[in-house]
Specification:
It contains 9 helices and 12 strands. By secondary structure, it is of the alpha/beta class. β8 and β9 form a beta hairpin. α4 crosses α5.
Length: about 325
C-alpha cells in the first residue's frame, strides 16, 4: 500500500478532500491504519503449575512477557493496524478461567489503543470459560452455538470460523485434539461464500484440509486466501478446486505462536484495492524447555532468518 492509498483512505473515512487537508500525512502519524490487519495465533497463555486445576504437566513462565513484547511491537508501529485477528488456542491447554484472564491482560493494551481485537476458537479453548474474560461473542456470532465473526476492512474482509470441538473430558490432552465445523456452520459458510461480493480471507485455527473445505474455498471467486494457526510454524501452501487449466489456486498461510514455542512472531497484512501483502514478523524460535541464553541452539536462528521480514502476496483482483 502506498502513502497515497493510505492518505486517500483516511480522507474518505473523514469525509475530506485532498485540497482541504494539506497536512494530513503529518497529522495521520500514530493514527490506526484501516488498511492493515495484524494476525496472531496460538497465544496459549496459562496459569503457573501451582494454580492449575487441570494439571498440564507443563509450565511456560516466559510466555506472558513474550506475548506482551509482541503486543508492544504492534503498538509501536508508526500506524498500528485498526484490526488484530487471532486464530485460536488462547488457553494453554485445558481452557481454564485463569488462562483467559491472563490473555485478556496481555491483549488489553491493543483494545485500549482503539484496535479492534477479534479472536477465533482453537482446540485448546473452552467457549464458556473464554466468555468470562472476552464477553459478547455469543451475541455477535453468525452461527448460534459457535463463535463465528466477520471483520470488515475497506479492501478485504476476514471470516473467522470456529473449528473447536469441545472435549468430553477436561484435563486430558487426547480429548482436546478434535476439530469440526458442524452442520450449521458449514451451511452458513456455503451460503456466505456463494454470495460474496468483496475479496475475503477465510480464517480458522485448523487448515482447510483438516476441515475439508479446501475445494469450497478455492472455488469461490472472492476467496483470496486461507489463514490458519495450530502448527506454531510459518507455513505457506495452497488449496485448489481441481487440476484443469482453469482451476483456482488460493494461498493457504500458517502462522506461528504468539510467544509460546517453535516459531514465534506475528503477521501484518497491508491491503490496497488490488493486493494484500503479508509481512512476516518472525521474532524467535525455541522449544518448550528451560531455555537460558547460554543453552540456546544456534540452529534455531536459521528458522528465524528464513522467515524474518519475508513478504507473502495475495491478489485481490
Amino acid at each position: 500500500m502506498t502513502r497515497r492509498d493510505f492518505t486517500k483512505g483516511l480522507l474518505a473515512a473523514a469525509g475530506m478532500s485532498a485540497a482541504g487537508c494539506q497536512s494530513c500525512l503529518t497529522a495521520s502519524k500514530g493514527a490506526l491504519d484501516p488498511f492493515a490487519v495484524g494476525v496472531i495465533s496460538d497465544i496459549h497463555t496459562g496459569l503457573p503449575w501451582s494454580r492449575q486445576k487441570y494439571r498440564t504437566g507443563r509450565e511456560y513462565p516466559w510466555q506472558p512477557e513474550a506475548s506482551k513484547r509482541l503486543v508492544a511491537e504492534i503498538l509501536a508501529l508508526p500506524n498500528p493496524p485498526a484490526n488484530v485477528i487471532g486464530l485460536g488456542d488462547i488457553s494453554l491447554a485445558f481452557g481454564e478461567t485463569g488462562d483467559y484472564e491472563i490473555a485478556a491482560e496481555v491483549l488489553k493494551p491493543l483494545s485500549d489503543a482503539g484496535i479492534k481485537v477479534t479472536l477465533a476458537m482453537g482446540n485448546h479453548d473452552i467457549r464458556a470459560e473464554f466468555l468470562k474474560s472476552f464477553p459478547g461473542y455469543d451475541r455477535t456470532t453468525k452461527v448460534p452455538g459457535r463463535f463465528v465473526s466477520v471483520v470488515e476492512t475497506p479492501h478485504v474482509d476476514f471470516i473467522l470460523l470456529d473449528s473447536l470441538k469441545e472435549p468430553t473430558k477436561r484435563g486430558d490432552y487426547a480429548a482436546c485434539t478434535g476439530f469440526e465445523l458442524g452442520d450449521a456452520q458449514m451451511a452458513w459458510l456455503r451460503e456466505t461464500l456463494a454470495s460474496l461480493v468483496k475479496p475475503t480471507f477465510v480464517c480458522a485455527h485448523h487448515t482447510a484440509w483438516d476441515l475439508k473445505i479446501s475445494g469450497l474455498c478455492a472455488k469461490s471467486p472472492k476467496v483470496v486466501g486461507y489463514l490458519h494457526g495450530h502448527h506454531h510454524r510459518w507455513m505457506t501452501n495452497f488449496i485448489h478446486n481441481g487440476y484443469a487449466n482453469t482451476a483456482r489456486v488460493v494461498r493457504m498461510m500458517g502462522f506461528p505462536s504468539f510467544g509460546l514455542d517453535f516459531d514465534v512472531g506475528w503477521g501484518l497484512i497491508r491491503t490496497s484495492p488490488s493486493k494484500a501483502v503479508l509481512e512476516c514478523k518472525a521474532r524467535d524460535h525455541y522449544f518448550p524447555v528451560k531455555r537460558p541464553a547460554a543453552e540456546r541452539s544456534a540452529s534455531w536462528d536459521i528458522f528465524v532468518r528464513d522467515w524474518a521480514d519475508r513478504e507473502i502476496g495475495f491478489s485481490l483482483a
